[in-house]
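Problem 12. The chain below contains 172 residues. Write out its predicted structure in token notation.
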Amino acid sequence: MATTLHIPQKKTKLWISLLGAICFVSMGFFILSKPQSKDTWAPIFGWASILFFGLTGLLSIIKLLDTRPALIINDKGIWDNTSFMQVGLITWNSITKITHQKVVNNHFIFIYTKDPEVYLNKVSGISLRILRKNQHGFGTPFTINGNGVRYNITQLYQLLQSEWEKHHSKTT
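Solution.
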């Protein structure tokens, strides 16, 4: 690939997530606005709804305002911006295989690397915990969710596979 390919973000699910967050935060405020007896759980549910869905809404807004492409594919490798767990450029020579699977009605591309720790050392906090959960559940921390890209996921998988094979054959 002599040029760089920019795959745009798909933001439909983010808009749905933001709308849902607004509804649940509003519901939380509504619950808290009503008089409660001492032994009710309503205030706990109200605050939990506000905090959890408020954070969800905030993260949705941040991602909606992000104008960067979801993926950048070039001669060096793959830059994944489909989620908040960004590790930077995953180089072709560090990739050992790429697979495509459907998991609970969502299509994912899994990127396996020689030493995931090289990339995991670049992140911390909740991002690191989520990537470790991916690694434990799927055998790799690096996943591309088809819902995050405005590109046919099967064609994207074929493109990534072909680019990896082309670059992999140069280094072996």
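Discussion. Residues 8 and 82 are 9 Å apart (CA to CA). Students who got a different answer should revisit the alignment rule from Section 12.3.
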